């Protein structure tokens, strides 16, 4: 007997195919807005509780509360971030256009290490390999960052509608999540934790390390102490190596050019103060918010910077955290057989 496919199944498959095709076309054309959407979602999660407090406790109008929240975030976060990025770009663009400016510094470090410790790690061959790997990443990061800054208006436009329509959006999400209720609650809870960990934890640790580094570099006479402080903050997101990637070469360079006490002071300042702040602040923040696995941070930062530029330091680990969470939910929803569920029930 020949089994025929029911017409409803055919219609369903055609309908799904059309939806997937339309989603692909729309996603491809609006991919450049992904950073703006992620930024709006991140700000929404951070602002949500305060937004509801302004509306319910202080009886503010929804649109007024939304505008005040947006204006506050622009003053407190966006303007200082743009200022820091502009300072970094002013210093980096001449180096990118003329790499010899930084090559000479590394050559000085190489000569010092070779003469004093017989360490030959920054020779011309290795330096060329490092430059070939680093410079394209830096150029792409700058380009993606400038594009991300251009999406700020769109991000805040999305955020405004998310804040003013927050109740209906959250009700729709809870109603239409394709998970059982326990997993829906888990997804929402862990997503909020991931947002707080990445959007609050990473910037706080980076800011503290960058600020302490900047103060030390200024005290010990580093010429570009602001730029070095920014680099220290950015490199703090790299697990294991972290901000040591900045203060160690900087201290060795000072030793190499004859500034002995400044070089020793920078190294001690980095190992004792900057390193300690990293360990203490990261431990306290993870204890209060969420503990993100180091591998998620490493690969998330790499993915995020390639996609979103500087802002990818936050969005990359967030995307990877959500992917890992959805994999766990999928296994819980569909990965267990009926026999597994019966065995778990009997054990409980």
Structure, explained:
The mean pLDDT is 82. The chain has helices at 7-29, 34-56, 62-97, 100-117, 124-150, 152-164, 166-176, 181-219, 225-235, 244-256, 260-288, 294-308, 312-335, 338-347. Helix 2 (34-56) packs antiparallel against helix 3 (62-97), helix 5 (124-150) crosses helix 12 (294-308) and helix 9 packs antiparallel against helix 10. The chain has one domain (32-332). The chain has 14 helices and no strands. It is mainly α. The radius of gyration is 25 Å and the shape is globular.
N to C succession of SSEs:
HHHHHHHHHHHHHH
What gross morphology would you assign? globular
Number of strands: 0
Largest sheet: none
- Fraction in helix: over 70%
Based on CA atoms alone, the radius of gyration comes out at 25 Å
Q: What's the structural domain tally? A: 1
State the end-to-end CA separation: 46 Å
SS strand fraction: under 5%
Number of helices: 14
List the helices and strands and how they pair.
Elements: H1 7-29, H2 34-56, H3 62-97, H4 100-117, H5 124-150, H6 152-164, H7 166-176, H8 181-219, H9 225-235, H10 244-256, H11 260-288, H12 294-308, H13 312-335, H14 338-347
């Amino acid at each position: 007997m020949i089994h025929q496919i029911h017409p409803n199944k055919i219609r369903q498959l055609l309908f799904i195919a059309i939806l997937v095709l339309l989603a692909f076309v729309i996603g491809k054309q609006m991919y450049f807005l992904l950073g703006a959407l992620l930024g709006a979602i991140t700000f929404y999660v951070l602002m949500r509780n305060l937004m509801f407090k302004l509306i319910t406790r202080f009886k503010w109008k929804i649109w007024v509360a939304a505008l005040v929240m947006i204006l506050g975030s622009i003053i407190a976060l966006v303007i200082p971030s743009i200022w820091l990025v502009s300072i970094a770009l002013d210093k980096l663009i001449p180096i990118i256009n003329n790499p010899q400016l930084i090559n000479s510094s590394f050559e000085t470090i190489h000569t010092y290490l070779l003469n004093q410790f017989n360490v030959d790690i920054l020779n011309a061959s290795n330096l060329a390999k490092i430059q070939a790997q680093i410079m394209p990443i830096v150029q792409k990061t700058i380009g993606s960052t400038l594009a991300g800054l251009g999406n700020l208006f769109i991000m805040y436009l999305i955020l405004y509608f998310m804040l003013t329509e927050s109740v209906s959006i959250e009700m729709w999400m809870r109603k239409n999540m394709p998970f059982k209720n326990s997993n829906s609650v888990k997804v929402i809870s862990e997503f909020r934790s991931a947002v707080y960990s990445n959007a609050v934890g990473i910037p706080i640790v980076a800011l503290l390390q960058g600020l302490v580094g900047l103060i030390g570099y200024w005290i010990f006479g580093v010429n570009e102490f602001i730029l070095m402080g920014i680099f220290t903050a950015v490199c703090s997101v790299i697990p294991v190596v972290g901000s040591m990637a900045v203060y160690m070469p900087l201290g060795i360079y000072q030793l190499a050019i004859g500034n002995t006490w400044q070089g020793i002071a920078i190294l001690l300042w980095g190992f004792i103060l900057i390193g300690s702040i990293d360990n203490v602040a990261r431990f306290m923040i993870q204890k209060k918010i969420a503990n993100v696995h180091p591998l998620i941070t490493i690969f998330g930062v790499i993915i995020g910077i390639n996609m979103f530029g500087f802002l990818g330091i936050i969005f990359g680990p967030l995307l990877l955290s959500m992917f890992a969470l959805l994999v766990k939910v999928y296994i819980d929803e569909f990965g267990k057989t009926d026999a597994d569920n019966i065995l778990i029930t009997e054990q409980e």
